[in-house]
Amino acid sequence: MNTIRFFTSGESHGRALTGILEGIPSGFSITSEDIDNELRRRQGGYGRGGRMKIESDHAEILSGVRWGKTLGSPISIFIENKDWKNWQEGMSFDAAFEGSLKPVTRPRPGHADLAGILKYHHTDIRNILERSSARETAMRVALGAVAKKILAEFNIRLGSYVIQIGRVSAKQPGFETTNTEKELWNRFENAEVSPVRCPDPAISKKMVKIIDKAIQEGNSLGGVFEVFVTGLPVGLGSHVQWDRKLDGRIAQAVMSIQAIKGVEIGLGFEMARNYGSEVMDEIIVSKQSARGKVQKAPHVYADGGFSRKTNNAGGIEGGISNGMPLVIRAAMKPIPTLRKPLMSVDIRTKKPLSAAYERSDVCAVPAAAVVAEAMTALVVADAFLEKFGGDSRDEIARNYHAYLSYLNTF
Ligand SMILES: Cc1cc2nc3c(=O)[nH]c(=O)nc-3n(C[C@H](O)[C@H](O)[C@H](O)COP(=O)(O)O)c2cc1C
Q: In this predicted model, which residue has the larger pLDDT, 301 or 162?
């Protein structure tokens, strides 16, 4: 991240999650309801465990915002863990409570448990699992909500939807290429009313069924989701250095989410199976912003007057946004904690034993999609502020509109 920096802290059953977001200019509106709406979206989704029924996340803004507007100073956010009341001794910072909770000694395959204790020289796996847990993603969503608000002021909007759970897929042939703004928002709206955040109601039902089967069998499931961004101007990110490329930055941010094992942009892996002539997006003059037309809404200039017949590139070429919608696809592995656990080894005795089980989600793909929206929003906001940087909303707006005027006269 070049202009924005953020940190999260907090253990899964600790007192709270805290987050600090630095680099947000002054003058942007933000309320705790804006953040809570996003937190609610993360908590939903068929297949979540008992924990999500206990928590109803609320973001308390501790600093950086006064009377509804950002100050330009670091924004800090606090999200209480309601479950903490049951863990006050077991998760206390105070040495007086040492030993009040039995240590976890049977690492779960697929979790950070074993590598974590070896690396940090712990003998209680809880010292690792409390932080590797995806509870942490609640704070990412909270900080991402601030990034989303900033982008929305410039008509840049993000959404997501689930396209696969286990082997049940909503993908028809050509699904990836029909990613016009209208189609993407249509999918988003349908997904928001689906229990698994899938745009296709018939496929949603099938997804719920296989999740039910996994619940019954003590098993778990993963899947695939897409995140999209619309209204993005041409020119975010850069081709000139590896770490400035927008696709690379997004891939890192999304891949950093717990259990995400693959990230694609646009057609992604599918591109490799085709001839060049089949997948490059031919360039046309966009009707909306053709020369000589007087445009009113600022965002219609954002593509420089050029468009594409297709969007296989997913909105990025050479590490630079090209004015088309950004389309990101990510694969989530099945949840590693299993009610019918796999075999493991007790780290004290070295004897084979089944892995530990602790209340867990069975499928969290719908929630992961919301987390990926947040991570994408943070990266895109970072790239936006890098290009149109300033210390206040008005300064950024001036820079942005000057750029749009330039694009229109190109
Ligand atoms: C929203 C979300 C919820 C998750 N819930 C659980 C869970 O309840 N139980 C679990 O074992 N893993 C869960 N995971 C996945 C683990 O956190 C993840 O697999 C683990 O930290 C190991 O990291 P890795 O899969 O990236 O290697 C969840 C992931 C996400 C994104």
A: 162
